[in-house]
Amino acid sequence: MHLNNAGKMEKKRKTQIFFMLAVSNFIFFLFFNSSISDILDMEEYAPPQNYYVKSMDAVCNYSFNNTSKWAVTCRVWGLLKYYHPNLNDETLDWDQVLLDRLDIINNNDVTIEQVNNELMQMIEIAGEYEMLIDTAWNDSMNMNVNLCWLDHSFINNTIRQELRKIASLNTITPSQYLTVTGRDFKYPIPKEKAYGTNEILQYKYRMLALFKYWNVIYYFYPYKYLMDQSWDETLSEFIPLFMSASDSPLYKKAVSKLVTRLNDGHCFSSATPFHDLLKFKFIVLIDSSTVIRTPIEGSLLERGDIILSLDGKDIRSVRDSLAAFIPSSNQPYTDNAVNGCIYKAITDGCVLTIMRNQQIITLYENKKNVSAKKDSSSIVNRISSDIGYVNMDILQEPDIPDLMDSINNYRAIIFDLRNYPSLYLEELFIHLCPTQDFFYALATHADLSHLGAFYEFKCIVTWPDDYWQARKPYNGKMVVLINAATKSAAETKAMLFRLYGATLVGTPTAGANGGVTNFLLPGNIRVSYPAFGFYFPDGTAIQRKGIIPDIEVYPTMDDIMAGRDEVLEAAISFLNSN
């Protein structure tokens, strides 16, 4: 189960993806206030060779009805938006072209002929183009999208043939709807017009929002094949929901719920309930019971209290309601995120019913000003004479040289990754890497000539000679602590530790990995998704299932009442027995 793992890079040196991934995941945390920049010259781009193809369920049959008329309109509009060569500049407002068609399509008595007429008008407005077909590209399944709906929907033959021609064209990026970013590989970033909050009171702008989001995910999301439900089915499911979301709260709920259908903890919206994955230190789930692990500052709660209700609602119902609107990759992520929401409710003030020492008690919690306290603990702590502990949460790059001097005094080191380290850690990983050239991951990236297609990219780091010769290799045993708070770039670090031969102890990680980008929807809602995929070198996915520890350890009520860190204790026990 153990391979071997590495990392460190000269900051000015161009490498494969390792640190770009960290940058992309850092940008994720800033996505409400910023967007990815670093738009690069496309002349360097060369078409890839190894396409990443995954089978997935598709909806092909769209017989005419009040839902399918919208679904087909969405798909036609999106295909033209990203593939028609005349939409690469800003002379045509494709949003407005759609908005102008919707009133006729919305008519309950609209006929097939009328809808086809509106779709044909879209094609005609897009204009004439040169037919330069890529003869080497003839397999639409390589695109990880499916064009079967062209042959099995109500559209007429003229539209069908024209769309097939357009779908066979090479796409041109950047365009008015896409920028391109990346260094060693490049991927598209959506550019969307900003709309205010009043427009979404009109059904047209809500449908525009749905169409925008659905097509971005359809063409640019690398993990579409891992969704619980076909993205095609999700489109039909959400058409009536967006049509009926006639006020701002309903619209925000519709967007939040749509985002959850990606089953991805990286896919957020600014309408998503706030949750902090690091509150596992205060609240845990034990055998379906919501338990206080550590008393919250200023709270009446005590260690081991079991929450039965929150503001008069059964806690299980509360958990289910919250989970319905939290984007999540797996159940551990969901449980941990819901715990974070409950923590926020407690600090905001609420009424709780709890069980303490077999007695049911009602607590009235006031609002608390709980500020994040700076961790004042040491980076390296002595567990025993030959075992050290490294707090990855507070480790900074300037600390690395002293860290390596310290840990080389120990037979074994425990690295705690139940957090989100604030740095890339290249200065650490060079000391742990087994070889100067190291193949550490597979990535999947968009083919910019055929939007919707993804190709494989081997991530190989090569350490410069001077850095490699100056390193201080650590040859002792390594154990890494992980849980559902180990997410995104932290999961990449956990993956690298495993490749370097570390033993992972704890619970499965969040299962949300890949460089994250974002764009705006009508109503000024910002949404995010990972623009490229990331995998172990053998192709094993981190996405959805997370990284499964070598030794799984879960808390018990005895652990809670004794104030034990059961994961840390299991790691120490493992090292003492080996």
Task: Give short descriptive properties of this protein.
578 residues, alpha+beta, Pdz3 Domain, 2-enoyl-CoA Hydratase, Chain A, domain 1, 3 domains, 6-stranded antiparallel beta sheet, 6-stranded mixed beta sheet, 16 helices, 19 strands, globular, disordered N terminus
Number of strands: 19
Number of helices: 16
Largest sheet: 6 strands, antiparallel
Number of domains: 3
Proportion of helical residues: 25-40%
Shape: globular
Instruction: Please state the average pLDDT score.
Output: 87
Low-confidence stretches: 1-48
Estimate what percentage of residues fall within beta strands. 15-25%
Kindly name the structural category: alpha+beta
Separation of the first and last Cα atoms: 16 Å
Whole-angstrom Rg: 26 Å
Structure write-up:
This protein has three domains: 49-260, no CATH class; 277-365, Pdz3 Domain (Roll); 380-576, Alpha-Beta Complex (2-enoyl-CoA Hydratase, Chain A, domain 1). The protein contains 16 helices and 19 strands. The chain has helices at residues 18-29, 68-83, 94-106, 112-126, 157-167, 203-220, 231-244, 248-260, 315-323, 331-348, 400-407, 426-432, 465-470, 489-499, 557-562, 566-576, and strands at 178-181, 187-190, 283-286, 289-292, 306-310, 313-314, 350-356, 359-365, 380-382, 387-391, 412-416, 437-446, 454-462, 477-482, 503-506, 516-521, 525-530, 533-535, 551-552. A hairpin with a 7-residue loop joins strand 12 and strand 13 (454-462). The radius of gyration is 26 Å and the shape is globular.
